[in-house]
Design goal:
It is built from 8 helices and 15 strands. By secondary structure, the chain is α+β, with helices and mostly antiparallel strands. The chain folds into 2 domains: about 190 residues, Fructose-1,6-Bisphosphatase, subunit A, domain 1 (Fructose-1,6-Bisphosphatase, Chain A, domain 1, 2-Layer Sandwich); about 120 residues, D-Maltodextrin-Binding Protein, domain 2 (3-Layer(aba) Sandwich), CATH 3.40.190. Strand 8 and strand 9 form a beta hairpin. The radius of gyration is 20 Å and the shape is globular. The site of one manganese (II) ion has 6 residues, from strand 5.
Length: about 325
Amino acid sequence: MATVINTNLTTLNGFINIQERKYPAATGNLSGLLRSVGLAAKIVNRELTMAGLAEDMMGETGETNVQGENVKHMDVFANEHFIAAFKRGRRCCGIVSEEQDDMVVIDEEGAQYLVCIDPLDGSSNIDVNIPVGTIFSIYKRISKDCLVTKEDFLQPGTKQIAAGYVIYSSSTMIVYTTGDGVNGFTLDPAIGEFCLSHPNMQMPADGKIVSCNLSYKSEFPDFIQRYVDYSFEHDKASQRPYNLRYVGSMVADIHRTLLKGGIFLYPPTTDSPKGKLRLLYECNPISFIIEQAGGASTNGKQRILEMDPTSFHERTPIYCGSKNMVEQMLMMHN
Ligand code: AHG
Ligand code: MN
Ligand code: MN
């Protein structure tokens, strides 16, 4: 019998080209920006796979960032390489990064897109070889005829043109959306290409996994405490208790939630009364993906994507995941 050889391979770059052709008016600028994400992701991935061997890539730099968090060497490496890739790509007029207090203004003639980025998410997990990620969000600038302004970055998440994350794990993947569904690409390290492995991702409407740092439970709002108690109650008919899973890298916890269903909770706590996770480069891009995959994402009062940002590094509580679980959680409000 003749061997069947599967030549049906769609690379990230090939997929971007196919998508671009769907829109005759497309300029190719968004495509260029997405290619820059793919390239920087490969560079960060290469460094991360070696982190255990290169001692200077482990641990902290001794500095703290704008949010008072300890900066890791890999935070700096990822930040510099993503920013450099966007600059080289020449399609980007500005960047807000977790690692930089102020926006990075790029004087690039005609560039219409800006990026909000968490270059390395979950960086405290690097030294123990646990998955980490990158989260990005792309907007079109609203200002004209000048350099990019603060207001360009403070658009609600509903205005995102594209968003996604990279997960650096047992395999490395890019998952992104341009508002037309969610697609996932796995890096084939032998050929150095991200290949379409998860087309049109849709998340289960129900789930059995709750993802949350329960050490703060007594500090959570009452309705979240009630939901947590409900989740771990024993009731065969409703398949409870649910399972508890918490990696502590948002990207890893969200990736599992997307594939298996479940709910991810980061409520306000005493130390972080507005929650810990950042609206522009963590909650908005993740919420765009979750909603595009059929899930829901809220701050307890409104859709995350409808929030009006007021500053680059603002935080928000976030509750997101399988639609029916998020609805059930919101019912505890009453
Ligand atoms: P970052 O490394 O970009 O600062 O993000 C860390 C975040 C996020 O990845 C994770 O969900 C959360 O911090 C974990 O916080 P706790 O340790 O408070 O659970
Ligand atoms: Mn993060
Ligand atoms: Mn980070």
